[in-house]
Design goal:
This protein has six helices and 15 strands. By secondary structure, the protein is of the alpha+beta class.
Length: 268
């Protein structure tokens, strides 16, 4: 039976016309599925459904999502990341569970520095917003330099379009071209624009898919936007509660050590 599938030109180019046509007529597409974004059931016979192709170095995984959650697209991820997703789909080794995680920034200038990410809900104007707080484990030098100029993490982000935050009671401006990859209900990566208009690439990606709370995922799917705050190493720290995380953000903002941007969920 024909499916109500959206197959983007990028996905078609990757899987080929024959496979795309088979999907559209229902030969290789499931009727019911769990949305790769919100994890709730979907039915490609009854509602618009996006085909999402995750591509690694050696592996490609075709997933399905409500078209209202994310559009059909190709997402480039690291092979290790994709293997972790495959394990979670097939019931193999599961992801690390927790509210924060570490991953290597794709343009990190040193081998030592990694970016830690903590998820939480931030209250702004009486509305809870899903947020990610990014903090390196050490100083970040400008790529191609020896680090003698000190920590340039915030300056590098300002050059990418992040904005300084002096008060955390306002929603930051949207950073166009960047997005948050929330797949299979878990946080996979922060994506930045690809070079030359190519497919998005991971600026940060989890070593294993990062579990987020049901409340965080619900808020993200409702707003389709995630607030991303970033501060230099040692500015925020690992906070056990969201109120303490907010206090740490306020302190960093007051010291001029906080930048932020709002980012849509991947592809939106």
């Amino acid at each position: 039976m024909p499916r109500m599938l959206d197959v983007s030109e990028d996905v078609r180019a990757e899987i080929g016309d024959a496979e795309a046509d088979r999907l559209l007529v229902g030969d290789n597409a499931p009727g019911s599925y769990d949305c790769t974004s919100c994890r709730t059931p979907g039915d490609s016979e009854q509602e618009r459904t996006s085909t999402v192709l995750f591509v690694g170095d050696e592996t490609a995984v075709l997933a399905f999502a409500h078209a209202t959650c994310i559009p059909s697209q190709v997402v480039q991820v690291a092979e290790e990341q994709l293997q972790g997703a495959v394990r979670s789909i097939t019931g193999g080794e599961g992801p690390d569970v927790g509210g924060s995680g570490a991953g290597r920034p794709q343009d990190a200038p040193t081998e030592q520095a990694v970016l830690g990410i903590t998820s939480g809900l931030v209250l702004i104007d009486d509305e809870l917003h899903p947020a990610l707080v990014v903090e390196p484990t050490g100083a970040i030098a400008r790529p191609g330099t020896d680090g003698s100029r000190g920590d340039e993490f915030l300056q590098l982000l300002l050059e990418q379009g992040f904005h300084p935050v002096h008060r955390t009671d306002q929603v930051p401006a949207v950073l166009h071209g960047w997005s948050i990859l929330l797949a299979m209900g878990q946080l996979h990566a922060v994506l930045q624009p690809g070079t030359g208009g190519g497919a998005p690439v991971a600026w940060w990606q989890a070593h294993a898919p990062l579990q987020v709370t049901e409340g965080w995922r619900t808020a993200a799917n409702k707003s389709q936007t995630v607030l991303v705050f970033a501060a230099p190493a040692g500015s925020i720290g690992q906070q056990p509660r969201e109120d303490l995380l907010r206090d740490a953000l306020d302190r960093a903002a007051a010291k001029g050590l906080l930048v932020a941007a709002a980012m849509p969920l991947a592809g939106t």
